[in-house]
Amino acid sequence: MEIVSVISLWFIPVLIGFILLYGTFKRVPTYESFVEGGKEGIKIAVSIIPFLVGMLVAISVFRASGALEYFMDYIRPGLEAIGVPPDIVPLAIIRPISGTAALGMTSDLIAVHGPDSFVGRLASVLQGSTDTTFYVLTVYFGAIGIKKMGDALKVGLLADLAGIIAAIIVVTLVFGSV
């Protein structure tokens, strides 16, 4: 395992050094290019802030309004009938919106149910089986000015749904049901 530690420790510095040497060999002004990249990075970071704030406010309003709890009470009987723990649904809903909020929910589920419980395992697999679709669309598409994102939203949410279903099936098959 020591070789892996050495490789992981030196990989990034060697890669950066290689890029700088290659750029110098090709007569690219490496320092000036680095400074220009830094300026562009700061501009992008500043342009992302309004989209991030809007998304975080929307998440807070959804949770604080009680809409999440109302929705959970409505679908609980159907979920219990098919063997899906209702505790996992808020995670499945929040995961496409915010990775940080989903990580917090996963931590809470693991703390309440335990890491070796069906819910804990399902939450962990679900966390890795889906993506933050709304985050990607609002932040990255918004930062570069893409206005028409309907198809990307449909495909992203469909991929999230497939990830949720696959997580439930795989965890059920590997670890048994609730």
From TrEMBL:
Residues 46-147 form the Nucleoside transporter/FeoB GTPase Gate domain. Keywords: Membrane, Transmembrane, Transmembrane helix. The chain crosses the membrane at residues 7-24, 44-62, 155-175. GO terms for cellular component: plasma membrane. The keyword tRNA processing does not apply. The keyword NADP does not apply. It holds the Pfam family Gate. This is Spore maturation protein B.
